[in-house]
Amino acid sequence: MTFSIIGTGNIAWFFGNRIVTGHHRCTGVYGRNLESVKKLAEALLADKSGLITDIEDGDADICFLAVSDTAIADVASELRFSKTVLVHTAGALGLDSIKSAAKDRAVFWPVYSILKNNPPDHRNIPCAWEASSDKAKRYVLSIGHAITDVLFEAKYEQRKWLHLSAVIGNNFINHLLSVCEQICKENNLPFSTLLPIIEQTFDRIKQSSPQTLQTGPAIRHDSTTIHDQVALLAKHPHWQKIYEVITASIQANTGK
Prior knowledge:
This protein is α/β, with parallel strands linked by helices. It contains 9 helices and 8 strands.
């Protein structure tokens, strides 16, 4: 199968390399930054590269629109496909966001954090898909197997909730760990001393529900410790609010 890519970000690099490794041919890479487009095109041994306006319908069986969520509608407005299947890679957007651009449309969203310089080397990457037609379904599943072993269908309403969960479970948790790191730095403590308990947390949830594993002053309703720790964060009012809101949420969620 042949494919093309619009975009040069993390997803474009990861998908492109995986698909080429899966013995599919890249017919072109397109975008607005020609220097970045050329680099990716060379890496994928693409037939050609150029601006978005250089794309021709039918040049590829499937085209991945791998740009930021906010840019998808804008880029889609420049496309008109009747032969090529157009696929966007955003978890929080529906098929209608590219409705004007292609007859056959699909979504292919990895529920995973992808970094260009540190891509995953395994195939256990859950990817949600949705298609507007049988053709789009066949094409996206065929090429999707080159990327991952974990494919599942998820309609827009489901993906919105899954995307929200991914933001909380990945982005929010990473921010909380960044706060921990800054607290340690401000108090001349090695952040590395927290790594074992952090690893323990993520190891435990592989076996049990996170709700059953909750520990700490919030679930114990240890008001003295909670009060003291809120006071420690006086110089960081945003962190205070986070502490108080999460404490209240833990207590509400336990039904105590």
